[in-house]
Structures are given as C-alpha cells and as structure tokens.
C-alpha cells in the first residue's frame, strides 16, 4: 500500500485488493465461481498474525495479493468502523477505520467522508427505477510496532456501469505519521522497475497515468514474499473493460529499492505482529481450525413459538470491533441472536466470527461486501453468496442457511441465486434505524415500539450506540412477556429462495 497521494478526484482512487503480474479485473464477478482458491502463503511467524487469506482470493482466480490480516492484531489500536446507509433512492455503504492517531485518522476519515460527500452531491436521489450505489470498505494488510497498513475498497455504480478502485494507507502506529510512496521507495529506480514490470504486458500503457505512474498509483503494497505490488484503478492504465490492474516487482528487485521505512513496512507484511508487541518475534501458537457443522451457527432451542411470544434480534454488517462487547451483553442476558455477517468483515475479524458461533448464536449471510444484489448479474450474485459461505465455513465453522440481502433489495435473480445456494431470505419487520440516529435511547425506543409476536428486529453491531442499547432492549421486551430466540427457531421450517419477514 502506499501512500497518501491524491490522484484525480477522490472517487477515482478508492479500492480493493488484487494482484499478480497483471490482474484483471478485481473482482471479476462476472466469471463462474472458481472451484478452488489460490494457495495462501504461510506467514512468518504464524501465531495471532496468521493471515485470513487475501480478500480477492475468494473472488478472483489468479494474482498476487497483499495478505488480509486478522483485525485483532490491532489490539490497543482497535479500529472504529463508521457506516452510513442512505435509503433516498441511492445506496451508500461506507466503513472505515480510525486508530486514535493523528494525522492518519484525518487522512483516512477525510478521504472516505469526502468520497461519500462527492457521491451524494453528484448522485441525488434517483427518480427512475435505477439508483446509484457507492460501496466503501477496508482491510488490514500490514501490522507491526513500526508500521500499520490498510487498503480501501471501493465500488461505484452510477446507474449504468460499475467501477472498482482502491487506495493504500501506511503509517507509524507510535506517532501516527503517514508514510507516502517516497518515504517507502527510492523513487527513480522504483519507477524504472515498475516500467520493466509493465513492459512484459503490452496491453498496459503506463503513459495513461501520466509522466510519473508510480506517483499516480493509488495502491502500493507488498506480498508475504516481499514482492512490491503497484495497483492502478480501472481505466487508469488499460481500457476500462480490463478492470483494475496490478504490476508485481520481484522480491529480489524490490529489496534494493526500499528505504529504511520501506523495509519496516515490508516486514509488517512478511512478519505481521501486533503494533504493541514487546518483541517483533513472538512465540508461535497453534492456529485454530474450526470444525464445520451443518447447524446454522447456533444450538437448537427448545422453544415453541406457537405457545410463547417469540422475538428475534438480528444484527447486520459485522463482525466488527464492538461485536465482542455485544456478545458479553447477550451472554449476561442469556439471550440468543442471529448475526448476518459480511464476508470481507469475517476475513478481517475471523476470531470474532468464531466467538459468535461458539457463543451459540446463529450466523447468516449478508453477502461479501454489502452490494445491492439487484444490480448484479446472476453469476455475480452467486459469487457474492458462495464466497461468503466459503469464508463462514472456513473461519467460523458454520454452514449458513439464511441470507439477508443488503438494503432488503430482492428480485427474481436474487431469489434464484439464494435457492441455488440453499439459503432462505430473511428480512425484518422492525427497523430501528440505528444506523441513522446513532442514538442509544432512540434505538431502544424504536426496537420496543413496533414489536409484535414473531417480530424480527433489525440492528447493526458495528455501531457502539446500538451495542449499548441491547441490554435495555432485552430488559424492556422481557418485561412485556417476550422470549428471545434465533431466526431459525422463530421461523421454523423454511425453503431456500423464499423470503420471510416475520415468524410465529
């Protein structure tokens, strides 16, 4: 990842992970789902720094890619994730980290908030049936006491075409100082190495990016083998039809190009450890491998919802930095819940996903990256579902039975894809609007007000105000005689491809 240079508008430089000498596109959601993914390199040392696998390795069949690391590595630098969703005819999903370090927080927040502002200014509420969509996410790709790296992930749909982009951010966790490309690389020889890498691919035209394509590249990162990856946005160095492009410089060529800061950044990828680690070489510990189960992520409940007033709490968009606190609240209240998880969030927080399953809660699919499924092709929808199912089986050890489509957006293709994946669609009939109000008292009031027997309550555990509201929600609804159950207990027998919004 690289640095904090602006290229064009903010919307021209947001992004996702991909790699290889040349990778196009990322993700290629129009292709059939690969039967197997690329082999993920084994990091050194393994312990808590084990990679969860490259984000796009679930979505593309080829390519070098930075390793996506377990977000728990951040430790005391726990990221705060902000999310906004607009239902005014446009779709906005934006999630970005904050590290309590300036100026890096200003850089990252400014970048993401400006992207959202520009999108909302240039894409007002649609009067036609086709709306625009902006989807922003992030991944941890480097971690050590001397360097932390994240990469942004962006998809923009303007009503006719979709475009993906990316951007890297590197900083010193001790000071918060942002590390740009020139702080990481000896610029002139690095530019020459980049041109050499491009020469092997005649379709790549670095001249499209200007006189200094290295400075124009929105993403500079490293693989776990020490290779330099330089990523370009869609349309930047190839025709738009080719998607995003990455050029890879071999490790033996990369090594002499690195500054002292560059070596420290590279080491945060090759040998990832927590930023607050006492020593950069911790004692390895065994990696946990969950055992998949045919259950939907929770133990069966002996509750007859035909005889008692059942209600289901459901949480979208996680797992995230506040999910563990939520699990503690639910444990204290002995209340089960259902979590609809994003694949890219599970990649970043695999331990949290496992904690949700082990606590006996139910886990469902919320797609890979919160895309509006009605704007995708059937193959693209399949990819969003199957990639998420795969990571849930791998990292959480569950075999999900339910899908909550982002925004509740469904059409015939979504129903058909859900049926092929063996997933029933689960909506809600109580919307707390917690994402909008960000107010604990208002979230409690909204959750309690419209509840009836069989209600499914929509909440988001990525907001601390929501997590804080949960104990009061449980207490007030129990006082009204409600029993908390998982979605599967509430709904009883369901059919794949069929949508449900309330139960018995």
Report what the structure shows:
α7 runs parallel beside α14 (464-479). The model is unreliable at 1-63 and 278-299 (pLDDT under 50). With 504 residues, the chain is an alpha/beta fold. It folds into two domains: 10-270, Heat Shock Protein 90; 309-500, TIM Barrel, CATH 3.20.20.370. It has 15 helices and 16 strands. The strands form four sheets. Strands 8, 9, 10, 13, 14 and 15 form a six-stranded parallel beta sheet that branches. A four-stranded mixed beta sheet has the order 1-2-3-4. The longest helix has 19 residues, at 104-122. Helix content is 29%, strand content 16%. β3 and β4 (162-171) form a beta hairpin.
The whole-number mean of residue pLDDT values reads: 82
What helical percentage do the residues reach? 25-40%
Tally of individual domains:
2
From the 3D structure, determine the CATH topology of the largest domain: Heat Shock Protein 90
| Helix segment tally | 15
Question: What's the β-strand tally?
Answer: 16
Which architecture of the largest domain does the CATH hierarchy give at level 2? 2-Layer Sandwich
Keywords:
29% helix, 2 domains, Heat Shock Protein 90, 16% strand, TIM Barrel, globular, alpha/beta, 16 strands, six-stranded parallel β-sheet, disordered N terminus, 504 residues, four-stranded mixed β-sheet
Give me the secondary-structure topology.
Elements (H helix, E strand, L loop, with lengths): L90 E4 L9 H19 L10 E11 L4 E10 L4 E10 L9 H4 L2 H13 L13 H4 L2 E4 L5 E5 L12 E5 L1 H4 L5 H11 L38 E8 L6 H11 L4 E4 L1 H6 L1 H9 L3 E4 L12 H19 L5 E2 L8 H9 L3 E3 L3 E2 L2 H4 L2 H10 L5 E6 L3 H16 L2 E3 L2 H5 L7 E2 L4
Parallel strand pairs: 1-2, 8-9, 8-14, 8-15, 9-10, 11-12, 12-16, 13-14
Antiparallel strand pairs: 2-3, 3-4, 5-6, 6-7
Helix pairs in contact: 7-14, 10-11, 13-14
């Amino acid at each position: 990842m690289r640095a904090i240079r602006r290229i064009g508008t903010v919307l021209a430089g947001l992004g996702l992970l991909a790699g290889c000498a040349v990778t196009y596109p990322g993700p290629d959601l129009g292709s059939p789902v690969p039967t197997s993914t690329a082999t993920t390199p084994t990091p050194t040392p393994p312990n808590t720094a084990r990679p969860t696998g490259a984000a796009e390795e679930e979505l593309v069949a080829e390519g070098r890619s930075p390793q996506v690391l377990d977000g728990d590595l951040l430790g005391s630098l726990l990221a705060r994730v902000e999310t906004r969703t607009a239902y005014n005819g446009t779709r906005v999903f934006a999630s970005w980290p904050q590290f309590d370090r300036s100026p890096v927080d200003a850089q990252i927040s400014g970048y993401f908030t400006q992207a959202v502002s520009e999108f909302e200014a240039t894409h007002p509420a649609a009067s036609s049936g086709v709306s625009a969509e902006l989807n922003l996410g992030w991944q941890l790709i480097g971690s050590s006491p001397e360097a932390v790296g994240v990469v942004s992930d962006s998809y923009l749909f303007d009503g006719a075409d979709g475009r993906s982009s990316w951007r890297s951010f590197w900083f010193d966790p001790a000071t918060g100082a942002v590390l740009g490309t020139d702080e990481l690389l000896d610029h002139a020889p690095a530019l020459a190495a980049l041109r050499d890498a491009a020469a092997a691919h005649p379709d790549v035209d670095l001249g499209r990016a200007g006189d200094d394509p290295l400075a124009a590249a929105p993403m500079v990162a490293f693989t776990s083998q020490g290779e330099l990856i330089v990523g370009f946005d869609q349309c930047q160095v190839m025709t738009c039809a080719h998607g995003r492009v990455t050029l890879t410089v071999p490790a033996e060529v990369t090594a002499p190009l690195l500054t002292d800061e560059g070596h420290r950044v590279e080491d945060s990828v090759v040998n990832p450890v927590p930023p607050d680690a006492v020593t950069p070489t911790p004692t390895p510990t065994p990696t946990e491998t969950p055992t998949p189960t045919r259950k939907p992520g929770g133990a069966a409940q002996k509750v007859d919802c035909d005889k008692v007033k059942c209600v289901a709490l459901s949480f979208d968009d996680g797992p995230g930095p506040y999910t563990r606190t939520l699990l503690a609240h639910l444990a204290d209240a002995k209340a089960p819940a259902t979590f609809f998880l994003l694949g890219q969030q599970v990649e970043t927080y695999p331990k949290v996903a496992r904690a949700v399953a082990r606590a006996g809660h139910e886990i469902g699919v919320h797609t890979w990256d919160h895309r509006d499924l009605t704007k995708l092709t059937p193959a693209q929808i399949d990819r969003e579902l199957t990639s998420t199912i795969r990571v849930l089986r791998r990292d959480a050890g569950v075999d999900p039975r339910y899908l909550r489509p982002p925004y509740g957006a469904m059409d015939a293709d979504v129903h058909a894809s859900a049926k092929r994946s063996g997933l029933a669609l689960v909506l809600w009939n109580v919307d707390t609007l917690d994402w909008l109000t960000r107010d604990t008292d208002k979230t409690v009031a909204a959750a309690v007000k419209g509840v009836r027997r069989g209600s499914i309550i929509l909440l988001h555990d990525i907001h601390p105000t929501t997590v804080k509201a949960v104990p009061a929600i449980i207490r007030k609804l129990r006082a009204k005689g409600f029993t908390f159950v998982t979605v599967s207990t509430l709904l009883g027998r369901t059919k794949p491809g069929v949508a449900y919004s309330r139960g018995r």
